[in-house]
């Protein structure tokens, strides 16, 4: 990744907050084309700066004025461009490693307020019942209106064990909801798996982190080991996955696609914003690291697949779903995804933090733009547990102010399946780290003698209608395969 004029170290990411695509780049600014400065406008800026310094009711620090000016300049471009002070920049990098202190909420901005995109699994926010679409009105005693996302994140993060009180506004709730949460070290397991039933595997991706690809590889190996034979069908669950590392998305797609198949490409004004990322190790392995898909079981490339998405599936999730859909490698089931199809580059500013700047758009292998549209499932299956009111609370990229437009008219053929709830039952979901056989005791079973779920979010085709339909599609595929032979 070097040239005579330019040396850079890049970490590609997707998914901070509402699921964006980021590129952390350390590069020589002098090698970039220098913009011509608008002297008249800068003269106006200097005049305003001077008036504030001389006449504002209280003295204002120069650093604060410049910082706020930078924030306003970036936030006025689109919902995802922003200024990161040194602390926010450090926290962003920590978040991609799968461990950070806080509450476990993916957030976005709307009308000057902070809106919950989705709570992260197994975190204080999820356990407190915070829902997608909730508006955070106050953090402790501080009103949120007027705070930047970075300021809101700072107030919600803190030392593990300390408490923070959030005041929430929820549609159709007449009064604000007040919840007090205890901050914790958020350790998110990005990959979990289980056998839904003999021959049919399930893998859940919660986020795309540094170790997601190797953990996926391990989960695929564990499924074959526990099933005693390679599974004959696989469900990949990307619901409410807000994104993560871009190279993680490329690696996940690469696990199921032929070598060198195009996964995603980007288009932007700068030459280094134009990328074509294929299913090749150099596009998904960590810097100077080994191939995280080494030893990948052969069945991963051919097993019939269904991918489940919903309105909380963003950016990196949409890249994977779009690639598998375009290559006809999987059937996409669920509801329209979030539509986060722009790339943000994290550009360090020396000792002054960094800027997050939108620099490109994503396109699926067939040339479809994800931006403000998302991935349209091949089979639309609504979530039977979500009411119409809750569905209305779902925000998507197209709902955000100043979002980039999408002029793509590409369509896919859609089949709609009516939603229908089902009774509950299930078995626990496991992560690759918990690969030892799980004993069954009295606590693992319900009063009917059936194995009970230790976690209500565990996958269960009987109570999860979308998952049940995904499993049915896999079984139909097996019947068609047998008839074809």
UniProtKB/TrEMBL annotation:
The keyword DNA-binding does not apply. InterPro entries: ClpP/crotonase-like_dom_sf, CtpA/B_N, PDZ, PDZ_6, PDZ_sf, Peptidase_S41A, Tail-specific_protease. Residues 431-451 have a biased composition (Basic and acidic residues). GO terms for molecular function: endopeptidase activity; serine-type peptidase activity. It holds the Pfam family CtpB_N-like. Residues 404-468 are annotated as: Disordered. Residues 89-157 form the PDZ domain. GO terms for biological process: proteolysis; signal transduction. Residues 1-30 form the signal peptide. GO terms for cellular component: outer membrane-bounded periplasmic space. Keywords: Hydrolase, Protease, Serine protease, Signal. This is C-terminal peptidase (Prc). It comes from Gulbenkiania indica.
